[in-house]
Every structure is written in C-alpha cells, then in structure tokens.
C-alpha cells in the first residue's frame, strides 16, 4: 500500500483566497484570509451596515410643511432618530415655520399699533374732539377749518361746485394747504368761479403776464379751467344746473362711508370713474377718476370722514336735514 501523497506546508502569511467546491454542490466557500485582508474586509462590512442619514435642509422642511417633520418622526426605531444632524434639521424647519407665521402676525400687529397711535393722536386737540388722521394738532388753522367746516359737507351751489372741481384738479400741482393759502387769489383771478363769467374770458387774457405772475398754476391747468367753465355752461343749459347734473350720479343723496382707518379710504371708486368718463366725453379736462373722487369728498357727494371723527356724524345730520 502506497503512502499518502506528501503535502507541502504553506506558511499562514502566504495563504490565498480560493474557491472550493463544498459538500452542498455548487455553493462556494472561502478559505481563511490573511490577517491584513481580514481586517480590511471587516471594516468594509461595518461601513455597509452603518445607516445613511441624508440631511434635511430647512428649505425642504418649509416646502413640505409639518407633514415632512411627521414622516421623519415616525422612523423612531431607526438610528437616524439619534443623529444630531437630523434633529437639528427638523428643529430648524420648525423654527422656520414659526418664523414665517410670526412675521405675518408681527406686521399685522405693527399696522394695528400704528392705526391706534393715529387714533390717539386725534385726541390731542385742545377742544378734545377727534378728527380724521390727516388733520393733526400741528396742522395749519386754515387746514383744520377746511376739515371742520367744508370737507364732506354737501354742496348744491353751481359756483361752489365748479370752484371745488377746479381746486381738486389743481391737486396735481399743489397740496391742499397751498391751495387753501391761495384760495382768495384763485377767486379773484377766476371771478369767484362763476362759470358764465369765466367762459367769456379768452385764453390770451387768462395767460396774460398780470395773471401769470401770480404763479398759481401751469398754463395747461389755467386753460383747463377755462375749457371746463365752457362745458359747465352747456350742462346748465341741458340739465338746468350743474348741481342737478352732478348729484344725479349719486341719486341726489351722499354716500355714507363707514371707514375706521385711513388705509380703508380709497383714492377712487367705480362711481368716480363713471363721472370722469362722462365729463371727458363732454369735453372736460383734468378730470381723472382720482381728481373726481377728491371733488366728491370735498363737495359732500361722499362722506369719507372716519367714524371716530366728530364730523362724520355732523355731515350725516346735514345730509338728513338738507342744510
């Protein structure tokens, strides 16, 4: 009987990674690896088993809202829950959501505080009466008198209506304070705003050096007042009076507004646009919807005094009595 074949001993450091046929058939088995290779394989396996946590940016959390935060909190069993990066991202998303809500609430609060301050400022008059926010204790006396005695009072005199329409058109170049300070000069130049008398003036006379030195308005505005006077005369012939024509747009009754804050008062309305369109069709100039709405406020076609202003009730009473 022959002796078994002699096997050459192999040093452990020279072992190779070989595939051999196992007892189960085609299943491969691996021979032991050298120590450096085994350590390297262990590190690779450990790296694969480590869970990968993708960081969440605050923008993603803001875009997906609370539902995104909730979906990540449902994975409490995973190791990502304990990841500081995941927790930091989620908390920053919550802070962003709270911040966006607080910004809108803070702006609303700031606006309310401003409006309350305006209301309190209206209580600082020596007579103790509240007025609209555009009148303050430091306003000129003529401006305060204009608010207390004229603005919002229904006007039915043709001359007064034409005067207020002309002065409202002048707002494109002057403020109400400047207009009121020169009001007497306006009346002298334009013959107390008598549309019949003004219509007889010529362009040459109205733009003469004597009148131009007053520097009331630009030549274009002066010519527009002349042209509007001619058109008012035509309306008087057609309707009997300018008063009847203009008050027909509001059914002979002022519009009673219920504005509490200045921001609620519009610069124009659909009614003003309708009147402006009809006046332009008739040949009037410098009668934009904003000019017409200012005229409506001044002539009392609409009562835009704030509800906290003492003149709101006064103008309403004068409308009821017709005085």
Number of helices: 16
How many angstroms separate the termini? Answer: 146 Å
Q: Which descriptor suits the 3D outline? A: globular
Radius of gyration: 43 Å
**Number of DSSP-assigned strands:** 4
How much of the residues is beta strand, in percent?
Answer: under 5%
Give me the side-by-side strand order of the main sheet.
Answer: 1-2
Output mean pLDDT. 74
Please describe the biggest sheet, giving its number of strands, its sense, and whether it closes into a barrel: 2 strands, antiparallel
The helical percent reads: 40-55%
**Helix/strand order, N-terminal first:** EEHHHHHHHHHHHHHEHHEH
SSE-based structural type: mainly alpha
Detail the poorly predicted runs.
Answer: 9-29, 44-49, 60-91
Task: Give your account of this protein's structure.
- By secondary structure, the chain is mainly α.
- The longest helix has 38 residues.
- Strand 1 and strand 2 form a beta hairpin.
- It has a two-stranded antiparallel sheet.
- Helix 2 crosses helix 3 and helix 2 crosses helix 4.
Topology:
Elements: E1 19-21, E2 28-30, H1 35-49, H2 58-64, H3 66-73, H4 84-121, H5 141-149, H6 158-169, H7 176-181, H8 183-189, H9 195-199, H10 203-206, H11 209-212, H12 219-239, H13 242-247, E3 255-256, H14 270-281, H15 289-298, E4 302-303, H16 310-321
Parallel strand pairs: 3-4
Antiparallel strand pairs: 1-2
Helix pairs in contact: 2-3, 2-4, 6-15, 14-15
GO molecular function, one term: metal ion binding
Binding site for Zn(2+): 132, 147, 305, 309
Biased composition (Low complexity): 72-111
